[in-house]
Write a structure and sequence with these properties.
Length: 239
């Protein structure tokens, strides 16, 4: 991301357009650039990327000139029929953190400090710790790109790490803290959110248990184009 900051969001670096040839080994993607050159890009997404990794689709890459990088290109976006989709899983944490700091997310506003990657639980780091006198709020941010029939779902693959985060958040609630599971939908064609029970039923069961324990769920979609990505609206969570 660049230092330019559009309203309620982040700007992309300069993007190169290409066509997705294939995604493989989870973190690699072959892309044919508009000049015909075939390049290998880093795919910053460990999920299955179901509904957003179809070969032949237009994709957009950022470029990096740092000598310590093995791959110069990073896959940022793919154009699907209903929406551009952001595939970089680092973006949601940055966007939600900025939203909390700027007061763009009403449910997370009013805190005096926002700290990322704070140790908690059993060998875990919470994505965001929001604090004000007498209150702490632990926020885990999840990247959501799976949308089918207007319904966004998480996860798109079985996630033991995500399951652990639900357990950790429940422990914080029991200790008297506030805890939030925040699902950031990196596309514009979702009308609601629900757990992907058909993919990871254990996660769905534990999410519902977490909500019954007092963990809050938030889901927001985005406004996304080739200039940047911005927080848009909250969408209903249907558990």
């Amino acid at each position: 991301m660049t230092d330019r900051e559009p309203k309620h969001g982040l700007s992309w670096p300069r993007l190169l357009q290409g066509t997705l040839v294939r995604r493989y080994k989870r973190f690699l993607a072959d892309v044919k650039l508009r000049n015909g050159r075939l390049v290998t890009a880093h795919c910053p997404n460990s999920g299955s990327m179901r509904t957003c990794s179809e070969p032949g689709r237009t994709v957009y890459l950022s470029t990096h000139d740092r000598t310590n990088r093995k791959l110069r290109y990073t896959w940022e976006l793919i154009r699907m029929p209903g929406s551009l989709v952001g595939v970089n899983t680092l973006v949601p944490n940055r966007l939600v953190r900025l939203g909390a700091e700027k007061g763009w997310i009403p449910e997370l506003s009013g805190y005096t400090t926002v700290r990322p990657e704070v140790k908690y639980g059993t060998g875990s780091r919470v994505d965001l710790l929001l604090e004000r006198p007498g209150e702490r709020c632990f926020v885990e941010v999840k990247n959501c790109t799976l949308v089918e029939g207007g319904a966004a779902s998480f996860p798109d693959a079985v996630t033991t790490r995500g399951l652990k985060h639900l357990l950790e958040l429940q422990n914080q609630v029991r200790a008297g803290d506030r805890a939030v599971m925040f699902f950031l939908i990196q596309r514009m064609d979702a009308e609601c959110f629900s757990p992907a029970d058909s993919i990871d039923p254990d996660y769905g069961r534990e999410l519902r248990k977490a909500v019954a324990t007092g963990v809050e769920t938030l889901a927001y979609d985005v406004d996304i184009d080739l200039e940047g990505i911005r927080l848009n609206n909250s969408v209903p969570c249907r558990l």
